[in-house]
Amino acid sequence: MIELIPAPSHSPTTTANLGSLTTPPCYESVIWTISHETIEIAEEQVRFIIYSKIDLFFL
């Protein structure tokens, strides 16, 4: 499977926060990684996210 976004670099340019899913059942098992820099992704990655029949919440 293609990588959806680059792995976090654990550098001062990223912040990690504990949280939950944004849609029901809203499990509180998510680590949100926020990048302080723009992350570019390929058109193929965008198409994968939009057209995938895989439940991306549980990858």
UniProtKB/TrEMBL annotation:
Residues 1-21 are annotated as: Disordered. This is Alpha-carbonic anhydrase domain-containing protein. Residues 10-21 have a biased composition (Polar residues). PROSITE patterns: ALPHA_CA_2 (PS51144). Residues 1-59 form the Alpha-carbonic anhydrase domain. It comes from Dreissena polymorpha (Zebra mussel). InterPro entries: CA_dom (IPR001148), CA_dom_sf (IPR036398). It comes from the Eukaryota. Pfam families: Carb_anhydrase.
